[in-house]
User: Fold this.
Amino acid sequence: MNASPIVETRELTKTYGSSHRVHKVNLTVETGQIYGFLGPNGAGKTTTLKMLLGLIKPTEGNIRMFGKELGRNRQAILNDTGSLIESPSYYGHLTGLENMRLMQRLRNVPAQNIDKALHIVRLENQKHKRADQYSLGMKQRLGIAMALLAFPKLLILDEPTNGLDPSGIGEIRELIKSLPGEYGITVMISSHLLSEIEQIATSVGIISDGKLLYQGTMQQLQASNQATMHFATGEPSRAEQVLLTLGFMPRRAERRLVLEALSDEEVSRINRALVEQGIPVTRIEERTRSLEELFLELTGKERSL
Assistant:
């Protein structure tokens, strides 16, 4: 029998006035995954994560974590959960180590966990430095170290690479990727950075305007990305008529004809038919969409991410 998902929501909804911030979201996060929660700013990602942590009460719906209902088992669930929501909280006048000691007492976990967590985020050599003297990337790593103090079964991170330079983003990415295999920690990470989710996640959920539009493994998402074949010609109208008589249904894109899911034999047949009709074919090109293009197709919104 398969184990229960580590996170499962049913019809999860949060309404402010007449506005749905999150609307009937059904999330499933399996143990051992890095689950990328992807969407534009304002899509409902942070609101959803706050509901999972009991920081916001849902208007409707149900949340189960570790096979238990959140409402009835909140403390036990949170004991097995670490989180970094929006931005790390720390005392700037205290050192990184002193901040960790405060969190260790609050979480009531062994003192030796401090050194382990600082080692994971590679801050052990900076632990005696005041937190307000840390770089932005070091502050993010300190926040993740605090979230890791209890070595939780589930780690929830909300936009952990926000504002970081490429080097800092790379450090956080490699850290997160190591957690399931080396420490048995399932990770749920939200982001609006499509390239980051593509590089880090094993599964992905895409949310827009509070609605979950896609959920599945990265392999399933890429498998849904069928290649298209583009035929460039100086006479697209004549070429289109030829293809229609052959039973193909091309779509026009400027001076190109675009068809989906063609075999090598069909590509050869189309090219031969066009040449025999005296229609020059200047280029035949196979294209696949990027994750960003898939996202825009799912949401139907040409918006900056």
Q: What stands out?
A: Residues 166-183 form the longest helix (18 residues). The chain has a mean pLDDT of 90. The longest strand covers residues 7-16. Residues 224 and 294 are 9 Å apart (CA to CA).
